[in-house]
Amino acid sequence: MPDHQAPLPPTPPGRILEEPGAAPAPQAPKPDSTWAPLRTPTFRLLWSVTLVANICVWMNDVAAAWMMTSLTTSPVLVALVQTASTLPVFLLGLPSGALADILDRRRYFIFTQFWVAIVAVLLCAAVALDAMSAPLLLALTFANGIGMAMRWPVFSALIPEVVHKPLLPSAMALNAVAMNASRIVGPLVAGAIIASAGTLWVFVLNALLSIVAGFILLRWQREQAAINPLGRERLPSAMRVGLQFVKESPRMRAVIARTVSFFFMSTAIMALLPLTAKRFDGIGFISGAGVFTVLLASMGAGAIIGAMFLPRIRQALPGEALVLTGTCLQAAATIGVALAPNLPLAIVCMMIAGLSLLSTANTLGVKAQMALPNWVRARGMSAYQMSIMGGMALGSALWGKIASLTSVPTSLIVAAITGVLCMLVVQRVFLDRQALEDLSPSKAWEPPKHSQPEEGRVVVHIEFIINPAKSKRFRTLMQESRRSRMRQGALAWRMLHSMERPERYVEEIVDESWIEHLRRFDRVTAADVALRERKLAFHVLDTPPRVMRYFETD
After folding, report:
1. CB within 8 A of 382, min separation 6: which ones?
2. Measured CA distances, 356 to 167, 299, 307, 365, 366 (Å)
3. How confident is the model at residue 469 (pLDDT cuts 50, 70, 90)?
4. Element (H, E) at 282
5. Greatest mean pLDDT range, 8-22, 70-84, 280-294
6. What is the pTM (predicted TM-score) of this model?
7. Torsion angle (degrees, nearest 10) of CA 6, 11, 16, 19
8. How many other C-beta atoms lie within 10 A of the C-beta of residue 168?
9. Phi, psi (rounded to 5 degrees) for 460
10. In whole angstroms, what is the distance from residue 159 CA to residue 165 CA?
């Protein structure tokens, strides 16, 4: 909640004010199944494009990983294919999320799709000209990862815009279905093409599908965002505010810590899968690239099965229990793959790994979405996705190194044990007991007006007069106020206590500029309004707390 002002007429209970430029909220279909969000035409179009794009990702990853095994025998370089694919999201996720919050999301989403298509064309050219090498393959895989880094935050931010809030868990589950259906279709198609025509034609099909997906997106008509009278946020400031929000949100910190821990362990199966597949080559009913394809498709099939039963799983297990159970199940499946004496048992373990991956990731993703208001959603989801990719990138490199020093089964077992221990520690250190806040936007207070704003920082003082006997409780409550102000983008916050008048407290907030001060009024949520009422309950005067604003001078 920004600073105290005379209240406007209250928002009717339960009403959510739409932000400028947001698509009109669709009527809420009954959330009777995982498939319910597909009744919304816009979500159906975006989901279809995402499915095609994810198929391209898996086709590209399968072809790149298999090609790397022909370019080198180093387990580290093979595992680095996964690192090169995921590291860009860790490095560029926050700038991409900031851009998705301050630019038109439709145009930005289309740009990211054509970026991926251009990289796919370059991959085709390098293979066709017989110019591919291990370093070049890693570089082009990294460039493809840049496209993913740009695309994922904006798509995550669009999901709550095009589906009703009760359907959000199902919509995110469908997003996971698109990912894991592509985990089946992509590898199967790639494996068949590699076996029959060669790796080049996988990259050719990938390029064609990426281009088609881009042109399908051009059909999407999103309502043009109204021009904000304050103008667009500057990228550095938008990135700072996004980081501050995540840092000052206990729920987001808890989600990110759990996400890093889970994906740090779970990536071991994927990073070492090409080498695991070679262990079963020649001892089963499938050989060559077919083993890799079947194992990958089995994991995708398990994830889709998990999506079908996800509503029941979520009812049976509360969030924290589901995360820990999913982590233990993933660890057991990883150990099973490491010790499996034959391919059929490895396939069963891969299916279990896919089911646990989908259930755990969906729970964490929904927690992240529920902790974010719309104005910072892309930045917050980019931080969440950075935690996924950071955990995967670090894990891929570490488990690849351990495999090169010992063996692939040993590395998988170490990853499984480490992952469970890390999650137990994280759940103990980063508690997630905070009640869900109402983050719907509120226009309960008018922003201040100033005819001649000056350059430089703005300092706000809000004076409270409280009963000294209640000072301890008031100070505790004001820590919530500090988190609220910082999440909204304030540069600094502190509480001053008068030496002469022990009943007098002054809350001091520093903003980057007059414009950034006004932006905080656009970011007020219903939870901020409720927090203000709790603070006013300590104020003993009949008049509201006195607000003084200053321009900081050199």
Report:
1. 93, 94, 96, 97, 98, 100, 152, 153, 156, 242
2. 22, 10, 10, 14, 16
3. very high
4. none
5. 70-84
6. 0.73
7. -40
8. 18
9. -115, 130
10. 10
In contact, 314 and 363? CB cutoff 8 Å:
yes
Lateral strand order in the sheet of 492-497? 492-497, 504-511, 458-465, 546-551
As given in the structure block, the two tokens for residue 205 are: 């099909």
- Are 294 and 273 within 8 A, CB to CB? no
Q: Would you put residue 14 in left (φ > 0), alpha (ψ -120 to 50) or beta?
A: left
What is the helix (H) or strand (E) element at residue 111, kind and residue range? helix 105-128
Residues 330, 269: Cα–Cα separation, whole Å: 10
Alpha-carbon dihedral angle through residues 390, 396, 399, 404, given to the nearest 10 degrees = -140
Amino acid at 289: A
Bridge partners, residue 458, by sequence: 511, 551
Phi, psi of 180 (to 5 degrees): -85, -25
Decide: 83 and 233 in contact? Cβ < 8 Å. Answer: no
Higher pLDDT, 7 or 372: 372
Distance, in Å, from the CA atom of 247 to the CA atom of 230, rounded to the nearest integer, reads 25
Task: Tell me, rounded to whole angstroms, the distance of Cα 533 from its chain centroid.
Answer: 32
Q: Which amino acid is at 535?
A: K
> What is the full DSSP assignment across 482-521?
HHHHHHHT-SEEEEEE-SS-TTEEEEEEEESSHHHHHHHH
pLDDT at residue 7 above 70? Answer: no
Give one DSSP letter per residue of 432-466, joined into a string: --PPPP---B---BPPP--SSPPSS-EEEEEEEEB
Contact present, 188 and 292 (Cβ < 8 Å): no
Q: What is the DSSP letter of 218?
A: T
Separation in Å, CA 368 to CA 257, 320, 434, 442, 463:
12, 13, 13, 21, 35
Residues in contact with 296: Cβ distance below 8 Å, sequence separation at least 6, in sequence order = 58, 62, 183, 184, 187, 273, 350
Q: What is the DSSP string of 119-163?
A: HHHHHHHHHHTT---HHHHHHHHHHHHHHHHHHHHHHHHHHHHHS
CB neighbour class for 196 (10 Å; exposed up to 12, middle 13-18, buried from 19):
exposed
* Position 293, amino acid: T
Name the one residue in this structure whose structure tokens are 């994927």.
Answer: 270
**Among all chains, which residue has been given the structure tokens 């008048």?**
501
323 in Cβ contact with 258 (< 8 Å): yes
**CA–CA distance, 195 with 551 (Å, rounded to integer):** 70
Assign 539 to helix, strand or coil.
Answer: strand
Structure confidence by residue, pLDDT tens digits, 155-203? 777 877 778 777 777 777 777 677 666 766 776 777 778 778 877 888 8
Is the pLDDT score of 286 beyond 80?
no
Surface-to-core class of residue 330, CB atoms within 10 Å of its CB (0-12 exposed, 13-18 middle, 19+ buried): buried
